[in-house]
Amino acid sequence: GQKFIPGVISKAEYLKTKAPELKIYLDGGVNPKSLESVNLNFIDALISGSYLFSKNTTEERQELIEGLLDL
């Protein structure tokens, strides 16, 4: 998977304030550590393939992300 690029968050916030109808998807390095610094109010969906399907079981990783998102 790709690395998380923190600079895209400010761009997503800018786009969402200018065009709230836009759907913003965050892809690349999505994991609990990278999500700690993300204002999820500007993100409509997370794409996390590599994180979910490596090392630990998929269920464990899904629970970690859901916990961060308060699902």
In sequence order, what are the helices and strands, one letter per element? Answer: HEHEHH
Overall, the morphology is elongated
Secondary structural class: mainly alpha
Number of helices: 4
Ends: how far apart?
Answer: 24 Å
Order of strands side by side in the largest beta sheet?
A: 1-2
Largest sheet: 2 strands, parallel
Strand content: 5-15%
Give Rg in angstroms.
13 Å
Uncertain segments are none
How many strand elements? 2
Mean residue pLDDT:
80
Helical amount: 40-55%
Sequence-ordered SSE layout with sheet pairings:
Elements: H1 7-18, E1 25-27, H2 32-35, E2 45-47, H3 49-52, H4 58-69
Parallel strand pairs: 1-2
Could you describe the 3D structure shown?
It is a single chain. The chain is mainly alpha-helical. It is built from four helices and two strands, in the order αβαβαα. It has a two-stranded parallel ribbon. Strand 1, helix 2 and strand 2 form a beta-alpha-beta unit. The radius of gyration is 13 Å and the shape is elongated.
Put the structure in a nutshell:
By secondary structure, the protein is mainly alpha-helical. It contains four helices and two strands; from the N terminus they run H-E-H-E-H-H.
Q: What features would you highlight for this structure?
A:
two-stranded parallel ribbon; 4 helices; 71 residues; 8% strand
